[in-house]
Amino acid sequence: MALLTLRESLSIDVGEWFCIAAAMLYAGSIILTDRLSRQDDPLTLGILEVGFIGVFALVASFLTEKPRLPAGGVEWGVILMLAVVCTGFGFTLQPVAQRYTGVERAGLLCALNPASAALLGTLFLHERLGWRGFTGCGLVLASVVLSHFGEPVKRKIAEERAT
Fold it and tell me: What compartments host this protein (predicted)?
């Protein structure tokens, strides 16, 4: 992640501390979602989660800036796409999917977000991603692949040691 976010000086500024704090809170959210989705209806949990995020974001927007409505149809389309697809589907269906998988796998899938966003931004929006960014994406993807395929290898080694 550092290769994707830090600048040439490799120093950690305020923005990076916000990212670290957000990542820790998101990890806590994944763990809490794992526990709650097994106890209650995960779809209701996801809807409530998105609802509270919307209310808190609305309050924060009025406290920190002067909100304005979008002027054109393109802006409304982008907002609708972000609200429905990214937030609505993503955060509402995550508890449903997480009920049927482990917290580790959910965390690994969420770890793909920064790398996939960087790669898709490069591909579709022609954003510049230097060698450090591509290296960071590669390391994130490699860690997810290795952790996914590492489990069967660990089990096989444990079984061989047990016999």
Answer: Cell membrane
